[in-house]
Amino acid sequence: MSDSYVQFYVQKISRQGDLLWGENGVLMGSGHGAARTYAGDLHAVTDGSGGAIVIWPAFPSQPEEEPSSLRTHVARIDFEGNIKWRRDIPGINLAITDGSGGVIIAYTDSYDEIAVLKVDAEGNLP
User: Is the distance from CB of 95 to CB of 102 less than 8 angstroms?
Assistant: First the structure.
């Protein structure tokens, strides 16, 4: 594996400091290492049930080539560390919980306008 390939993990830590989702955490995805540039765009919010909704950017893997386009992913992980759903979204600037197991995401669209997206607890876009 080249240095330009990265994997994205999340981990739940108890109040006592114990790792709750295995030694390495939950593998969320992987991609081209250029996504390291966007590390400030990683977000996690509570799902209200002991799990989390995680949002992260990634470039698709393209060995020996420049990455094509940044993609942003959102996934819900339950309290046991199981990925319940995952989907691609247009982007991320800010994320907050919706109080019902979903997330509200603000992002800048392709016209540099601020847009808001809601993803419900099942991963739907109502």
Answer: no
State the pLDDT at residue 34: 57
- Please, where are the H alpha helices in the chain? none
Domain count, the chain: 1
Residues pairing with 41 in the sheet: none
Give the whole-angstrom CA distance, residue 100 versus residue 121: 7
Q: How far is CA 48 from CA 42, 77, 83, in A?
A: 19, 11, 15
How do residues 41-66 score in pLDDT, each as one tens digit?
Answer: 788 999 999 999 999 887 665 555 55
Domain carrying residue 65: 5-119
Task: Say if residues 98 and 106 touch (Cβ distance below 8 Å).
Answer: no
Is 65 among the domain residues? yes
Q: What is the pTM of this model?
A: 0.80
In a domain, residue 23? The reply is yes
**Amino acid at residue number 79:** F
Q: What is the pLDDT of residue 38?
A: 54
Q: What's the helix, strand, coil split of the chain in %, to 5?
A: 5, 45, 50
CA atoms within 13 A on the CB side of 35: 25
